[in-house]
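Appendix B, Record 12. Input sequence as logged:
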Amino acid sequence: MGNELHRAPIMNGMIKAEDLGRVNRAIDSATLFIDAQVRRLWPNLNLGDAASVIVVSAPPTRPAVERVLSATPGESEIVTIGGGSTHDFGKLFAFGSAQDGSLPATFEWNDSLELATLTAVPTTFGTGAEYSPVAVLHGSGPGSAVGANGLRPKTVISFPGFLRTLPPAAAACCFLDGISHCTESILSSPSNAVVVETATEALTAFLSLRGAGSVVNSSELVRAATVRSAKALSLSKRNTPHLLAAALSDSMEIPHGLAAGICLSAYLDRGLPRSFPVDDKTLTRSVDHWLSIAWDNEAALPSYERLSVAIQEEAKITGPAMTVNDAQWWSKAILRTALALGGTDG
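Logged structural output:
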């Protein structure tokens, strides 16, 4: 399934009237999920034309999604404006609406559902949520996600100028998520030439940029890398870095991109295979650079025991398979990395 990409010019930081009209037409009579910060930055949207408006200020948890499901009628059109969490919220709502308001306890892929049509307006990059057929429930335990081909947005309306609004820490988390997706795709599908080529192109693009300001000046490159990394991830098998990131973000209230970066850094300490198509020192320097910007010094780390159990449970449900000893080893490696960044014992 292809995505229809619209690229809107930015005039003095403002979206031109005809491009604003394109989004307003999409909103008309649809259920709208919009990031709280974006709502403040873009006050001239015709929200009154939407069937319902849900302002998203945190990652989607089961209680939050279920509250919206119980209070909001399902519509045939859903529009999501924001970052990965906002797109996931809209997808989870679409999935739950098609199942009489219920969400599965663990991962479920279901292509038999009659899902609403989704339109995504991304205001970040790297997550690939606007191109992915999967949505993740946060804080609900391992494997809490849903998937269906119909959850891949039919239309993506891209406004690169929104990248000007990203705080440096948020941009760093986006980079870490995208770099992690690319690295994992290459490691998980070494014999798949299409995956390796696509992920390598995206990874090379991400690694060529340094400093949050470079995102604004290279918005088209960033968007193209995001599309390629999402495509590669969707064609590849899940690998250890993402499993670890899911377990860490479930055990610790930090952005997914930051969790992905911490776990990827721990993974890189073990060394990459010689066949890896990108210089490992360049990759490690880039991950360390973005981690130094993304890290929240106030973050308290989970206990070794808690993280180890979370890794084991995540592996049981979504794979790849992992022994208890391996889970314990990774728990120690991740916590060492986080402590080196300045984390405190929880």
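The domain at 4-163 is CATH 3.40.50.1970 (Rossmann fold).
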